[in-house]
Design brief:
68% helix; 2 domains; mainly alpha; transmembrane helix
C-alpha cells in the first residue's frame, strides 16, 4: 500500500469515527433532554442506505464481469472524420514515398559498371605499386646475403604469397660466407606481409618454407609469435606510415647490422 492510499484511508476512518461520535452525542442529548428516541427513525434509513450500497456494488461487479466476457461496441460503427482524414493523409504520404524509392537515380545505376571498373583499376594499380616497392626493397636488403638467382626465387615466393599460391614456394639458401640469420628473416617476413596485408601465420609459413636451412630449428608457431620482436638484426623492422606502403630504405640502411 502506498503512502497516498494510507493517508486517504486514515482520512476516511477519521470522518467515519467523527460521524459515529456525532450521531451518538446527538442521540444521547435528544433522549436525555427531550426523551426523543431517534433510533426508531434512523435505523430504517441506515439499513436502507447500507442495502442500497451493497446492492449497487454487487450489480456493478456483475455488469463488469459480463461486459468483460461479452464486449459491446457502443460507438455503433461511428468513427471520427478527423481520424479518417489523418489515415488517408498518412497512406497517401507512404504511397508517395514508396513511389520515390521505386524510382532510383538512373544516372548512378547506369554508371555502376564504370564506377566498379574504376575501383578495380585503382586497386590493381596500387597492387602493382606495392609489388614494385617490395621487389626493390627485397633486392636492396638481401643483396649482401643472397645470390641473384636466390633473390629472384625469393621475389617469386613473395608473389605466390600475395596470390595465395603457397604450394609453389621454392626453398632458398643464403650465402655461406654471409648467411641471413633468424631475426633478420623474421623481420623481413613481417615487413613484406605488412604491405600485402598477409596474416602472421602466412608470413611465418612463407619465411619458413623459403629458408628451411636458416630456420631449421624454428617452428612456424615460434616464427609467428616472434616476427616483430625487438632484437638487433640484419634487416630491422620497417613499420609503414599510415595509409602508405613505401619502405624507409635510408633509415633501414643506417640501422641494419
Amino acid at each position: 500500500m502506498t503512502n497516498r492510499t494510507q493517508i486517504r484511508t486514515q482520512k476516511i476512518s477519521f470522518v467515519l469515527a467523527l460521524l459515529v461520535i456525532t450521531y451518538t452525542a446527538i442521540d444521547t442529548y435528544l433522549f436525555a433532554c427531550h426523551e426523543i428516541n431517534i433510533m426508531k427513525i434512523t435505523t430504517p434509513v441506515i439499513l436502507g442506505l447500507v442495502t442500497t450500497i451493497v446492492l449497487c456494488g454487487l450489480l456493478q461487479r456483475s455488469f463488469y464481469k459480463w461486459l468483460t466476457k461479452n464486449p459491446i461496441d457502443f460507438s455503433f460503427g461511428w468513427q471520427s472524420s478527423l481520424v479518417l482524414d489523418s489515415d488517408f493523409e498518412i497512406k497517401d504520404d507512404c504511397a508517395n514515398e514508396a513511389q520515390t524509392i521505386e524510382q532510383p537515380n538512373d544516372s548512378v545505376i547506369d554508371n555502376y559498371d564504370t564506377l566498379l571498373e574504376n575501383i578495380k583499376k585503382k586497386e590493381a594499380e596500387r597492387q602493382v605499386e606495392v609489388m614494385n616497392a617490395i621487389r626493390e626493397y627485397v633486392t636492396i636488403k638481401t643483396a649482401p646475403y643472397l645470390s641473384k638467382e636466390a633473390i629472384s626465387i625469393l621475389i617469386s615466393n613473395i608473389e605466390y604469397m600475395a596470390c595465395g599460391r603457397y604450394d609453389l614456394y621454392k626453398p632458398i639458401r643464403s650465402n655461406i660466407d654471409k648467411p641471413l640469420k633468424s631475426p633478420g628473416l623474421r623481420h623481413l617476413a613481417w615487413n613484406i606481409g605488412e604491405r600485402l596485408g598477409i596474416s602472421l601465420l602466412q608470413r611465418a609459413t612463407f619465411i619458413k618454407v623459403s629458408f628451411p636451412h636458416e630456420l631449421t630449428n624454428a617452428t612456424i608457431e615460434y616464427l609467428k609469435l616472434n616476427l616483430r620482436d625487438n632484437v638487433s638484426s640484419q634487416i630491422p623492422i620497417d613499420v609503414p606510415d599510415k595509409g602508405d606502403y613505401r619502405f624507409h630504405l635510408e633509415t633501414d640502411n643506417s640501422n641494419s647490422k
